[in-house]
Amino acid sequence: MSTRNAVVRGLGGALPRRVITNEDLSVTLDTSDEWIRRRTGIVERRHADESESTSALATTAARRALDSAGVDSADLLILATSTPDQICPATAPKVAANLGLDGIAAYDISAVCSGYIYALATASWAIGSGAVGSALVVGADTFTRLLDPADRTTSVIFGDGAGAAFLSAGSADEPGAILASTLHADGTGETLIQVPRGAGSFFEMQGKEVFERAVSAMSDSVNTVLARVGWATEDVDSLVAHQANRRILNTVASVTGIPESKAEVHLDRVGNTSAASIPLAMTDAAVKGHRTPGDKAVLTAFGGGTTWGAAAMTWPSISVLDPH
Ligand code: COA
User: Fold this and answer.
1) Which residue out of 153, 210, 248, 307 has the highest number of ligand 1 atoms within 8 Å of its CB and is therefore the one to mutate?
2) Which residues does ligand 1 sit against, CB inside 6 Å?
3) In which band, very low, low, confident or very high, does the pLDDT at 2 lie, cut at 50, 70 and 90?
Protein backbone atom coordinates (compact mmCIF):
# COMPACT_ATOMS: atom_id res chain seq x y z
CA MET A 1 0.00 0.00 0.00
CA SER A 2 1.45 3.39 -0.90
CA THR A 3 1.54 5.99 1.88
CA ARG A 4 0.97 9.69 1.71
CA ASN A 5 3.85 11.60 3.30
CA ALA A 6 4.64 15.24 3.88
CA VAL A 7 7.66 16.20 1.75
CA VAL A 8 9.89 19.25 2.34
CA ARG A 9 10.09 21.15 -0.97
CA GLY A 10 11.57 24.46 0.16
CA LEU A 11 13.54 26.08 3.00
CA GLY A 12 14.16 29.66 4.03
CA GLY A 13 15.82 31.59 6.84
CA ALA A 14 15.84 35.18 8.08
CA LEU A 15 18.25 36.85 10.49
CA PRO A 16 18.28 40.28 12.11
CA ARG A 17 20.94 42.65 10.72
CA ARG A 18 22.74 43.37 14.00
CA VAL A 19 25.62 40.98 14.79
CA ILE A 20 26.67 40.74 18.45
CA THR A 21 30.10 39.14 18.92
CA ASN A 22 31.49 37.51 22.05
CA GLU A 23 33.78 40.53 22.39
CA ASP A 24 30.73 42.84 22.32
CA LEU A 25 29.20 40.91 25.25
CA SER A 26 32.50 40.92 27.15
CA VAL A 27 32.36 44.73 27.35
CA THR A 28 29.38 44.69 29.75
CA LEU A 29 29.45 41.13 31.17
CA ASP A 30 32.02 39.22 33.21
CA THR A 31 32.75 36.78 30.38
CA SER A 32 35.22 36.29 27.54
CA ASP A 33 35.37 35.17 23.94
CA GLU A 34 37.56 32.27 25.10
CA TRP A 35 35.00 31.06 27.72
CA ILE A 36 32.02 31.34 25.38
CA ARG A 37 33.76 29.51 22.51
CA ARG A 38 35.11 26.76 24.74
CA ARG A 39 31.93 26.14 26.77
CA THR A 40 29.32 26.68 24.02
CA GLY A 41 30.96 26.90 20.57
CA ILE A 42 29.16 30.20 19.90
CA VAL A 43 31.12 33.01 18.22
CA GLU A 44 28.37 35.51 17.37
CA ARG A 45 24.58 35.88 17.39
CA ARG A 46 22.02 38.34 16.01
CA HIS A 47 19.85 40.75 17.99
CA ALA A 48 16.54 41.95 16.54
CA ASP A 49 15.82 45.68 16.53
CA GLU A 50 12.34 47.21 17.00
CA SER A 51 11.39 46.72 13.34
CA GLU A 52 12.54 43.09 13.31
CA SER A 53 9.57 41.61 15.14
CA THR A 54 8.93 37.87 15.39
CA SER A 55 6.25 38.24 12.68
CA ALA A 56 8.57 40.25 10.40
CA LEU A 57 11.35 37.66 10.63
CA ALA A 58 8.83 34.81 10.24
CA THR A 59 7.33 36.44 7.16
CA THR A 60 10.73 36.80 5.46
CA ALA A 61 11.70 33.19 6.23
CA ALA A 62 8.31 31.87 5.05
CA ARG A 63 8.46 33.90 1.83
CA ARG A 64 11.93 32.50 1.14
CA ALA A 65 10.66 28.94 1.78
CA LEU A 66 7.83 29.51 -0.73
CA ASP A 67 10.35 30.92 -3.25
CA SER A 68 12.70 27.99 -2.63
CA ALA A 69 9.82 25.60 -3.41
CA GLY A 70 8.73 27.68 -6.42
CA VAL A 71 5.15 28.11 -5.11
CA ASP A 72 3.13 31.06 -3.84
CA SER A 73 0.62 29.61 -1.40
CA ALA A 74 -0.02 26.92 1.23
CA ASP A 75 -3.15 25.47 2.84
CA LEU A 76 -1.86 25.76 6.40
CA LEU A 77 0.65 27.92 8.29
CA ILE A 78 1.98 26.78 11.66
CA LEU A 79 4.25 29.20 13.51
CA ALA A 80 6.37 27.79 16.31
CA THR A 81 7.20 30.66 18.64
CA SER A 82 7.36 31.41 22.35
CA THR A 83 7.97 35.09 21.70
CA PRO A 84 4.85 36.07 19.74
CA ASP A 85 4.40 39.73 18.77
CA GLN A 86 1.75 39.93 21.51
CA ILE A 87 0.10 37.42 23.85
CA CYS A 88 -3.26 37.77 22.10
CA PRO A 89 -3.95 37.26 19.22
CA ALA A 90 -1.60 34.63 17.79
CA THR A 91 1.13 35.78 15.39
CA ALA A 92 0.59 33.14 12.65
CA PRO A 93 -2.50 34.86 11.14
CA LYS A 94 -0.49 38.08 10.76
CA VAL A 95 2.33 36.17 9.02
CA ALA A 96 -0.19 34.50 6.68
CA ALA A 97 -1.74 37.90 5.91
CA ASN A 98 1.72 39.41 5.27
CA LEU A 99 2.20 36.65 2.68
CA GLY A 100 -1.15 37.40 1.05
CA LEU A 101 -2.53 34.11 2.39
CA ASP A 102 -5.45 35.43 4.45
CA GLY A 103 -8.17 32.83 4.73
CA ILE A 104 -5.88 29.81 5.25
CA ALA A 105 -5.62 27.97 8.59
CA ALA A 106 -2.91 29.62 10.69
CA TYR A 107 -1.98 29.10 14.33
CA ASP A 108 0.92 29.31 16.79
CA ILE A 109 2.56 26.45 18.64
CA SER A 110 4.37 27.27 21.88
CA ALA A 111 6.98 24.66 22.83
CA VAL A 112 10.05 26.92 23.23
CA CYS A 113 13.15 25.30 21.68
CA SER A 114 11.18 22.16 20.66
CA GLY A 115 8.58 24.25 18.87
CA TYR A 116 9.83 23.47 15.40
CA ILE A 117 9.74 19.70 15.92
CA TYR A 118 6.20 20.05 17.30
CA ALA A 119 5.12 22.17 14.32
CA LEU A 120 6.80 19.92 11.76
CA ALA A 121 5.28 16.75 13.24
CA THR A 122 1.76 18.19 13.41
CA ALA A 123 2.01 19.55 9.84
CA SER A 124 3.16 16.15 8.62
CA TRP A 125 0.17 14.53 10.38
CA ALA A 126 -2.18 17.05 8.73
CA ILE A 127 -0.72 16.38 5.28
CA GLY A 128 -0.40 12.62 5.82
CA SER A 129 -4.06 12.36 6.86
CA GLY A 130 -5.20 14.17 3.72
CA ALA A 131 -6.67 17.05 5.76
CA VAL A 132 -4.49 19.57 3.86
CA GLY A 133 -2.34 19.38 0.75
CA SER A 134 0.48 21.69 1.82
CA ALA A 135 1.85 23.59 4.81
CA LEU A 136 4.29 26.32 5.74
CA VAL A 137 6.07 25.39 8.97
CA VAL A 138 7.81 28.41 10.46
CA GLY A 139 9.93 28.74 13.60
CA ALA A 140 10.67 32.28 14.79
CA ASP A 141 11.84 33.71 18.10
CA THR A 142 13.20 36.97 19.47
CA PHE A 143 14.25 35.79 22.92
CA THR A 144 16.96 38.43 23.32
CA ARG A 145 14.20 40.92 24.19
CA LEU A 146 13.43 38.83 27.32
CA LEU A 147 17.00 38.31 28.54
CA ASP A 148 18.40 39.92 31.66
CA PRO A 149 21.32 41.90 30.20
CA ALA A 150 23.23 41.21 33.44
CA ASP A 151 22.79 37.40 33.20
CA ARG A 152 25.91 36.02 31.54
CA THR A 153 24.58 32.46 31.42
CA THR A 154 21.66 33.32 29.10
CA SER A 155 22.99 36.42 27.30
CA VAL A 156 25.88 34.53 25.73
CA ILE A 157 23.69 31.72 24.36
CA PHE A 158 20.58 33.24 22.78
CA GLY A 159 20.13 34.98 19.44
CA ASP A 160 17.12 35.93 17.30
CA GLY A 161 16.00 34.57 13.93
CA ALA A 162 13.46 32.66 11.88
CA GLY A 163 13.45 29.60 9.64
CA ALA A 164 10.75 27.95 7.55
CA ALA A 165 9.96 24.97 5.37
CA PHE A 166 7.28 24.46 2.74
CA LEU A 167 5.87 20.92 2.68
CA SER A 168 3.37 19.25 0.40
CA ALA A 169 1.95 15.77 -0.07
CA GLY A 170 4.14 13.17 -1.73
CA SER A 171 5.52 9.70 -1.20
CA ALA A 172 8.02 8.20 1.23
CA ASP A 173 10.62 7.59 -1.47
CA GLU A 174 10.86 11.26 -2.51
CA PRO A 175 13.82 13.27 -1.14
CA GLY A 176 12.55 15.45 1.73
CA ALA A 177 9.90 12.99 2.97
CA ILE A 178 9.09 13.08 6.69
CA LEU A 179 9.13 9.41 7.67
CA ALA A 180 8.60 9.35 11.44
CA SER A 181 8.24 11.69 14.41
CA THR A 182 7.94 11.49 18.17
CA LEU A 183 6.87 14.24 20.59
CA HIS A 184 7.08 14.38 24.39
CA ALA A 185 6.49 16.71 27.33
CA ASP A 186 7.11 16.65 31.07
CA GLY A 187 5.61 19.63 32.87
CA THR A 188 7.22 18.68 36.18
CA GLY A 189 10.28 20.46 34.80
CA GLU A 190 8.45 23.70 34.01
CA THR A 191 10.72 25.92 36.13
CA LEU A 192 13.94 24.77 34.40
CA ILE A 193 13.37 27.18 31.50
CA GLN A 194 10.87 29.94 32.17
CA VAL A 195 9.83 33.54 32.15
CA PRO A 196 8.24 33.74 35.62
CA ARG A 197 4.77 35.28 35.87
CA GLY A 198 4.69 38.99 36.55
CA ALA A 199 5.43 42.15 34.63
CA GLY A 200 9.05 42.79 33.69
CA SER A 201 10.27 39.25 34.40
CA PHE A 202 13.33 38.03 32.56
CA PHE A 203 13.95 34.64 30.95
CA GLU A 204 15.57 32.17 33.39
CA MET A 205 17.33 28.87 32.73
CA GLN A 206 18.89 26.25 35.03
CA GLY A 207 21.74 25.63 32.59
CA LYS A 208 23.38 22.57 34.11
CA GLU A 209 20.20 20.54 34.61
CA VAL A 210 18.87 21.57 31.19
CA PHE A 211 22.14 20.38 29.65
CA GLU A 212 21.79 16.92 31.20
CA ARG A 213 18.09 16.52 30.42
CA ALA A 214 18.58 17.80 26.87
CA VAL A 215 21.24 15.17 26.16
CA SER A 216 19.20 12.24 27.44
CA ALA A 217 15.84 13.39 25.97
CA MET A 218 17.29 14.12 22.52
CA SER A 219 19.30 10.89 22.45
CA ASP A 220 16.26 8.80 23.46
CA SER A 221 13.98 10.42 20.88
CA VAL A 222 16.59 10.04 18.13
CA ASN A 223 16.77 6.33 18.96
CA THR A 224 12.95 6.11 18.90
CA VAL A 225 12.59 7.50 15.38
CA LEU A 226 15.60 5.52 14.10
CA ALA A 227 13.95 2.31 15.36
CA ARG A 228 10.69 3.33 13.70
CA VAL A 229 12.26 3.81 10.27
CA GLY A 230 14.70 0.93 10.66
CA TRP A 231 17.91 2.96 10.28
CA ALA A 232 21.09 2.12 12.19
CA THR A 233 22.99 5.04 13.72
CA GLU A 234 25.80 4.51 11.21
CA ASP A 235 23.25 5.05 8.40
CA VAL A 236 22.57 8.63 9.54
CA ASP A 237 24.07 11.25 7.20
CA SER A 238 22.83 14.37 9.00
CA LEU A 239 22.01 15.05 12.66
CA VAL A 240 20.08 18.32 12.89
CA ALA A 241 19.96 18.81 16.65
CA HIS A 242 18.66 21.97 18.31
CA GLN A 243 21.58 24.41 18.35
CA ALA A 244 21.98 25.28 22.04
CA ASN A 245 25.54 24.30 22.84
CA ARG A 246 28.26 22.58 20.79
CA ARG A 247 29.02 20.29 23.74
CA ILE A 248 25.37 19.13 23.76
CA LEU A 249 25.56 18.33 20.03
CA ASN A 250 28.75 16.35 20.52
CA THR A 251 27.39 14.48 23.53
CA VAL A 252 24.14 13.54 21.72
CA ALA A 253 26.28 12.27 18.82
CA SER A 254 28.45 10.20 21.13
CA VAL A 255 25.52 8.80 23.18
CA THR A 256 23.60 7.75 20.06
CA GLY A 257 26.69 6.57 18.16
CA ILE A 258 26.17 9.01 15.27
CA PRO A 259 29.58 10.38 14.17
CA GLU A 260 30.18 13.98 15.33
CA SER A 261 30.98 14.94 11.73
CA LYS A 262 27.32 14.28 10.85
CA ALA A 263 26.06 16.92 13.28
CA GLU A 264 25.03 20.16 11.56
CA VAL A 265 26.71 23.10 13.31
CA HIS A 266 25.24 26.56 12.84
CA LEU A 267 25.29 27.84 16.42
CA ASP A 268 28.74 29.36 15.95
CA ARG A 269 27.13 32.11 13.82
CA VAL A 270 23.68 32.50 15.41
CA GLY A 271 23.67 30.99 18.92
CA ASN A 272 20.48 29.40 20.24
CA THR A 273 17.60 30.80 18.15
CA SER A 274 15.00 28.63 19.94
CA ALA A 275 12.19 27.59 17.52
CA ALA A 276 14.17 28.90 14.53
CA SER A 277 17.23 26.79 15.28
CA ILE A 278 16.42 23.60 13.34
CA PRO A 279 15.16 25.18 10.09
CA LEU A 280 18.04 27.68 10.19
CA ALA A 281 20.55 24.84 10.68
CA MET A 282 18.96 22.96 7.76
CA THR A 283 19.04 26.07 5.58
CA ASP A 284 22.69 26.61 6.50
CA ALA A 285 23.54 22.98 5.67
CA ALA A 286 21.76 23.39 2.33
CA VAL A 287 23.77 26.58 1.63
CA LYS A 288 27.00 24.74 2.51
CA GLY A 289 25.88 21.99 0.13
CA HIS A 290 27.46 19.17 2.11
CA ARG A 291 24.36 16.92 2.13
CA THR A 292 22.85 15.11 -0.84
CA PRO A 293 19.13 14.76 -1.68
CA GLY A 294 17.93 11.48 -0.20
CA ASP A 295 20.52 11.45 2.63
CA LYS A 296 19.14 10.13 5.91
CA ALA A 297 18.54 12.96 8.39
CA VAL A 298 17.40 12.99 12.01
CA LEU A 299 16.08 16.18 13.61
CA THR A 300 15.82 16.55 17.38
CA ALA A 301 15.20 19.22 20.01
CA PHE A 302 14.69 19.79 23.73
CA GLY A 303 13.20 22.88 25.28
CA GLY A 304 11.10 24.59 27.90
CA GLY A 305 7.98 22.89 29.17
CA THR A 306 9.88 20.65 29.29
CA THR A 307 9.29 19.42 25.75
CA TRP A 308 11.28 17.31 23.33
CA GLY A 309 11.02 15.20 20.22
CA ALA A 310 12.61 14.00 17.00
CA ALA A 311 11.81 13.38 13.35
CA ALA A 312 13.40 11.20 10.67
CA MET A 313 13.38 12.45 7.08
CA THR A 314 15.40 12.28 3.91
CA TRP A 315 17.40 15.30 2.80
CA PRO A 316 15.31 17.45 0.43
CA SER A 317 16.18 18.33 -3.14
CA ILE A 318 16.17 22.14 -2.93
CA SER A 319 18.05 25.35 -3.56
CA VAL A 320 18.05 28.03 -0.85
CA LEU A 321 19.04 31.64 -0.29
CA ASP A 322 21.84 32.30 2.24
CA PRO A 323 20.19 34.28 5.10
CA HIS A 324 23.50 35.63 6.49
N1 COA B 1 31.27 33.51 31.14
C2 COA B 1 32.16 33.15 32.05
N3 COA B 1 31.88 32.31 33.04
C4 COA B 1 30.65 31.82 33.11
C5 COA B 1 29.65 32.15 32.18
C6 COA B 1 30.00 33.04 31.16
N7 COA B 1 29.13 33.44 30.22
N8 COA B 1 28.52 31.50 32.48
C9 COA B 1 28.78 30.76 33.58
N10 COA B 1 30.07 30.97 33.96
C11 COA B 1 30.79 30.39 35.09
C12 COA B 1 29.88 29.97 36.21
O13 COA B 1 29.57 31.05 37.06
C14 COA B 1 30.70 28.93 36.89
O15 COA B 1 31.65 29.53 37.69
P16 COA B 1 32.07 28.88 39.13
O17 COA B 1 32.65 27.54 38.77
O18 COA B 1 33.03 29.88 39.67
O19 COA B 1 30.77 28.76 39.88
C20 COA B 1 31.45 28.26 35.74
O21 COA B 1 31.41 29.21 34.65
C22 COA B 1 30.83 26.98 35.28
O23 COA B 1 29.40 27.19 35.20
P24 COA B 1 28.41 26.12 34.69
O25 COA B 1 27.01 26.62 34.86
O26 COA B 1 28.80 24.81 35.26
O27 COA B 1 28.81 26.18 33.14
P28 COA B 1 28.41 25.18 32.03
O29 COA B 1 29.63 24.56 31.50
O30 COA B 1 27.28 24.29 32.47
O31 COA B 1 27.87 26.17 30.93
C32 COA B 1 25.79 26.81 29.98
C33 COA B 1 26.74 26.96 31.17
C34 COA B 1 24.57 27.65 30.24
C35 COA B 1 26.52 27.27 28.73
C36 COA B 1 25.42 25.31 29.84
O37 COA B 1 24.98 24.82 31.07
C38 COA B 1 24.37 25.03 28.82
O39 COA B 1 24.61 25.17 27.62
N40 COA B 1 23.19 24.56 29.25
C41 COA B 1 22.14 24.12 28.36
C42 COA B 1 21.48 25.26 27.72
C43 COA B 1 20.44 24.80 26.77
O44 COA B 1 20.53 23.75 26.18
N45 COA B 1 19.43 25.60 26.63
C46 COA B 1 18.47 25.40 25.63
C47 COA B 1 17.44 24.44 25.88
S48 COA B 1 16.09 25.35 25.42
Assistant:
1) 153
2) 31, 35-36, 39-40, 112-113, 152-153, 156-157, 193, 205, 207-208, 210-211, 214, 244-245, 248, 272, 302-304
3) low
**Is the four-CA dihedral 237, 301, 11, 168 of positive or negative sign?**
positive
Residue-range definition of the domain harbouring residue 204: 1-315
Specify if 323 maps to a domain.
no
pLDDT at 87: 94
The pTM assigned to this predicted structure is: 0.97
Mutate to test the pocket of ligand 1, among 23, 36, 39 (most ligand atoms within 8 A of CB): 39
Q: What is the CATH number for 307?
A: 3.40.47.10
Please compute the mean of the pLDDT values over residues 296-322 and round it to a whole number: 97
Q: Within a domain: residue 88?
A: yes
Q: How many CB atoms lie within 10 A of CB 77?
A: 26
**Average predicted confidence (pLDDT) for the chain:** 97
324 assigned to some structural domain = no
Q: pLDDT tens digit string along 36-45?
A: 999 999 999 9
Catalytic-role residue among 113, 223, 245, 266: 113
Could you give the number of structural domains in the chain? 1
